[in-house]
Design brief:
Layout: E1 2-5, E2 12-16, H1 23-37
Antiparallel strand pairs: 1-2
Amino acid sequence: MLAFVDDATSRLLLLRFVPSESAFSYFVAVRAYLEAHGKPLAFYSDKHEVFRVLNRPGFAGGW
């Protein structure tokens, strides 16, 4: 489930069940959010496991 929460009020602005937490799922959810609420001042994401930089020694990156 993807959730968009107003940080100031803790109001749930968008909830979406998705098959997987992927970039495509987030793009679709952000579009729905923008259509319903307009452009926000900022987006923040959780800093846990979904969005991370793989910048380890020896990691070549790419596909």
